[in-house]
């Protein structure tokens, strides 16, 4: 993966994704061993719009590997945009650093950046462009499922809320479909159902099934994973529909009583009120772990694309994973 | 102190404060020994309002201990506030870092943060919330008095200017009262006298005395320490009063002629005109040293709450302090 | 150079400039050896106006030497300016860090800063004040010429575009004149000719010559170096003049066919359209290399003024340079 830009998850093979998941596991349990993996490396975080959560995760990942960070975050970028193309900014920064994480409001910006950086052999990681798609969020989701179940297949995975506009769930479903053997339960109001192209993707996937339902309470008992998303008011035609439907898609301790004792609750964050704060102390709540797992996956990805080997990883993998 | 949040100085015992003062002394003279104390640690500076001076001090402290820093500073926080509670932001960041320094315009914000972070075992240091109280400023003041006199008790300490609204002086007085044996000289116009509750605190303190006076020049000769504060125009009913009183509370070389040769002049900074720039080169000027001492105290505090031992400190303490 | 502030290039002797050029060469080829040169040091980037490119270069330079960085960048500075003088801010920051890089919109700000920092023995590097003059841009230019030709003298150097207002070219010409033996070709419309004082400087320089021409295509074949600058629309009296002249000063592959095969194209960046993007892949394009060379020169300068020796440099210099 050395020098490889990751604009979408299609830039990674399934075996590369599996390897990243293993690396994240290794990193979690071998903090000291990996603390100097990227000594002397520099990451640039070029955030053309603010996304503090994502930026801090990318930055912490590089710092915990021993590397350094430079960059800008929204408010500081005036001099960058001063008549300069994304390509020129990226070519400039490619002459300073070893890897770039970029966030941009326009779809396609990450691809333009990846091409410009390629001239100088520098990999670009898409930290979200347009529609807030970003591959490392999905990697965080996969790592969280793995940390809870030891696998990402053979599970019943519920996706709940706004399934029409939530890019996060589309990306997760598509990636799980590459592995196959997942039972999807799609929980949403009629107004916010999963788009046809994602359903078609599930149909083509090996050993995958799906059900579409309106009610969370009725299916929560079947789920291994419940992926919650925000239902935004502005998606509805009128306030009445919103108020009527909203509570159906709020997870609280009452609904959680109906769930399996080891179900994992995921959410890409930030939440507004779709998960009640009384759920936070339930051991099934995995959404803050997801933040931690996102950082681990970014450590795995950043070290991989700059070409730095995690000390001791290959030996560990041979013993733990292949044994 | 491992894992301990510091929202106010009441969160620290007097012996913990004394230990931090010793640690600051040790750090000052053992830069090389402590340079890797916090290797691999990450501090988050969550500044919901800008306070560059304070932020840079917290950050430099962690960096000089070998740790790393992530964060945001006012202008960058739009995505954080986007419908997310302080508690959720802190829970998220607690899954990335080892210690949080938070600045927030609302009183009580640091306490909310400390409680949220506690779920993940992460300490929060209050870098100011509402009324700009922040415990590490008082620690900087104490360290500066210590560096000049080798002690914080048995001294005559003058506090001059706006004693009504200046939280910095209230916090300093209250903390000194915990140690006792201080002679306070409270110098202010009638409009800006020390509040009753602080006076009551002095009365209850062991071996503490106080005098209230209007004129700096008349008492400056008695002082070991002169703590200057800014007299803000908007505190007065009319411009005439302000202009009449202002000069009384400006420290210049002329007034300094009346002071003891080893008196120490402190100021929390930034100053406007209450200390004349010609005082800067006087050896009694200690207000820029205060910046340096603030950084040393933050190094002491940050390393303590993350649970990292300063190499060689215990041995030094046994020899130097207890001998 | 220990503790030396660099406000203009006149603060450096020609032999110090030559030494910095050698250091940059050494750093380029000895990354690992120099990676811990500034361990434990802290650079403050005080940017009172945004200049992302310059800031990132100063920061990366210190990080690649093993040091740390704190600072602010335009948007974050509200609390700094809150009634505080530049001198006080610099005195404060001087009590936290080892070296300061400052950018300020007002001419003379860097000199004020250098004087304030001197009280604490801290060097200030001017990263641009007023008119966007900054000595490290010229150092980047010199390093780029050196990396292409192994020398900065005995060359025919063309400067093209806006020669009236472009401080970058004035600074480069004046510095080259200190070394002498350069043949300048000044290419500009009549409206934007080189100012009289720069021409006079060339006339006084040892073995320097110059020609003034209007047309790039007619002289490009003679040049060893072509330094392009932006021709800003607002410099012209009317749109017609601008449109008529503009194309004359745009470098594209067609014009480049007329140039020597080893000519180097420089540009201080950002470019708008004065260099066509099809030139980027031509081996003569040196303007992104310039970014890299700027970082190397800042590494050389930062390590020099804080007084840290590049491990192995002296031995290398004795063998490589003096041999």
From TrEMBL, chains A, B, C:
L-aspartate binds at residues 82, 167, 230. Keywords: Pyrimidine biosynthesis, Transferase. Pfam families: OTCace, OTCace_N. InterPro entries: Asp/Orn_carbamoyltranf_P-bd (IPR006132), Asp/Orn_carbamoylTrfase (IPR006130), Asp/Orn_carbamoylTrfase_sf (IPR036901), Asp_carbamoyltransf (IPR002082), Asp_carbamoyltransf_Asp/Orn-bd (IPR006131). GO terms for molecular function: amino acid binding; aspartate carbamoyltransferase activity. Residues 4-146 form the Aspartate/ornithine carbamoyltransferase carbamoyl-P binding domain. It catalyses: carbamoyl phosphate + L-aspartate = N-carbamoyl-L-aspartate + phosphate + H(+). Gene3D superfamilies: Aspartate/ornithine carbamoyltransferase. GO terms for biological process: 'de novo' pyrimidine nucleobase biosynthetic process; 'de novo' UMP biosynthetic process; amino acid metabolic process. Carbamoyl phosphate binds at residues 53-54, 103, 134, 137, 269-270. It comes from the Bacteria. Pathway: Pyrimidine metabolism; UMP biosynthesis via de novo pathway; (S)-dihydroorotate from bicarbonate: step 2/3. Catalyzes the condensation of carbamoyl phosphate and aspartate to form carbamoyl aspartate and inorganic phosphate, the committed step in the de novo pyrimidine nucleotide biosynthesis pathway. Heterododecamer (2C3:3R2) of six catalytic PyrB chains organized as two trimers (C3), and six regulatory PyrI chains organized as three dimers (R2). Belongs to the aspartate/ornithine carbamoyltransferase superfamily. ATCase family. This is Aspartate carbamoyltransferase. It comes from Bifidobacterium thermacidophilum subsp. thermacidophilum. The lineage of its organism: Bacteria, Bacillati, Actinomycetota, Actinomycetes, Bifidobacteriales. The gene is pyrB.
């Amino acid at each position: 993966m050395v020098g490889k830009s990751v604009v979408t998850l299609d830039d990674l093979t399934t075996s590369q994704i599996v390897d990243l998941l293993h690396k994240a596991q290794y990193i979690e349990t071998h903090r000291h061993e990996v603390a100097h993996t990227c000594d002397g490396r520099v990451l640039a975080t070029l955030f053309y719009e603010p996304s503090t959560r994502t930026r801090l995760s990318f930055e912490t990942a590089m710092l915990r590997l021993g590397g350094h960070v430079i960059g800008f975050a929204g408010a500081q970028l005036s001099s960058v945009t001063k008549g300069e193309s994304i390509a020129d900014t990226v070519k400039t920064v490619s002459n300073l650093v070893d890897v770039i994480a970029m966030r941009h409001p326009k779809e396609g910006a990450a691809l333009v950046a990846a091409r410009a950086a390629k001239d100088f052999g520098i990999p670009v990681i898409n930290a979200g462009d347009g529609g807030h798609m970003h591959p490392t969020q999905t990697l965080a989701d996969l790592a969280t499922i793995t940390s809870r179940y030891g696998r990402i297949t053979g599970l019943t995975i519920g996706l709940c809320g706004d399934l029409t506009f939530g890019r996060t769930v589309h990306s997760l479903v598509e990636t799980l479909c590459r592995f196959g053997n997942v039972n999807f339960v799609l929980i949403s109001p009629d107004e916010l159902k999963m788009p046809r192209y994602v359903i078609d993707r599930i149909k083509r996937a090996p050993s995958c099934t799906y059900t579409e339902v309106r009610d969370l309470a009725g299916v929560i008992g079947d789920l291994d994973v419940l992926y919650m998303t925000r239902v935004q008011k502005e998606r509805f035609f009128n306030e009445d529909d919103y108020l009527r439907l909203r509570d159906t898609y709020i997870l609280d301790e009452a609904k959680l009583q109906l769930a399996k004792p080891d179900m994992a609750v995921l959410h890409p964050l930030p939440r507004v009120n779709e998960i009640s704060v009384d759920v936070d102390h339930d051991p099934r709540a995995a959404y803050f772990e997801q933040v931690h797992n996102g950082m681990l996956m970014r450590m795995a990805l950043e070290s991989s694309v700059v070409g730095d080997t995690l000390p001791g990883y290959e030996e560990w993998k041979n013993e733990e994973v292949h044994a």
